[in-house]
Amino acid sequence: MQHRLLGRSGLKVSAVAYGNWITHGSQVEDDAAVRCVHRALDLGVTTFDTADVYAGTRAEAVLGEALVGTRRDGIELCTKVYWPTGPGPNDAGLSRKHIMASITGSLRRLQTDHVDLYQAHRYDHLTPLEETMSAFADVVHSGKAHYIGVSEWTAEQIRAAAALARDLRIPLVSNQPQYSMLWRVIEAEVEPACRDEGLSQIVWSPMAQGVLTGKYLPGQPPPEGSRATDEKSGKDFISRWLRDDDLLERVQRLRPLADQAGITMPQLAVAWCLRNDNVAAAIVGASRPDQLDDTVAAADLTLDDDLAAAVDDVIGDKVIADPALTTSPPSR
Hints:
Layout: E1 3-5, E2 12-14, E3 16-19, H1 30-42, E4 47-49, H2 58-66, E5 76-81, H3 96-110, E6 115-120, H4 129-141, E7 145-150, H5 155-168, E8 172-175, H6 190-197, E9 200-203, H7 234-242, H8 245-252, H9 255-261, H10 265-274, E10 279-284, H11 289-295, H12 305-315
Parallel strand pairs: 3-4, 3-10, 4-5, 5-6, 6-7, 7-8, 8-9, 9-10
Antiparallel strand pairs: 1-2
Helix pairs in contact: 1-2, 1-11, 2-3, 3-4, 4-5, 5-6
């Protein structure tokens, strides 16, 4: 497994990280989730990403149970705070009250005394940024988190947070955006800001919720057991891609490129993201352990310039790159 430095910090993360959004506590039964985590460990994955909101806090608990017996210093554990985790008016956002309550709950569910990376899941327009960053500083200084990150923040928001992080002497090291060969909205503004401020990207959905695996064929129903048939939550997230038969046809035209390179479609998608030197890790999930044998292997692949150009030619105007699509809810 290749490891990469996270931002300007000394923390190294595995180039392929394991994430349990949608899967643990929802699409995947607990015993299967545990097998997936153990397989990821066997394959050299050391970075595990979750969030308090996933499956109504259940995903953190499943991951914590799956990691029992794993040497704590041998992994990097990442979680997030922002979305509602209860019915109360202070059970969401990035207020000091919610951050302090959420880190306590996350550590309990994950069965650990600290996380390596604590991330603001979205930007909170209702809480002063100074309050949020001060609370994060207290989390770091108390030893409950080693590093701080954000997720889906705009370039302007990242620059403002980085200035406060310097004043507070806390390590703001990462951004977690959606990123794939189809969704490139960070490239124009967010990525340059992160390079300037010393943040890396830990990207989610490098396979565009599974579309880039090539399993979804134009004009045909989705395969049984796929994310598109998951009524709990997965179906909603992938549906926007499946309505475009032209896009699905172009994805099928990527298959000969992958075949010629001697790699699989999932490997092509993940390796494409890792080609960006500002990407420290690409997060993959799994509903079966054998899926990880395929995707984790992308960490050892390097796509050459000709293949990357051929991918661009195939995808063409289907690329979504508008930086205005990096947004957070205006209110809760």
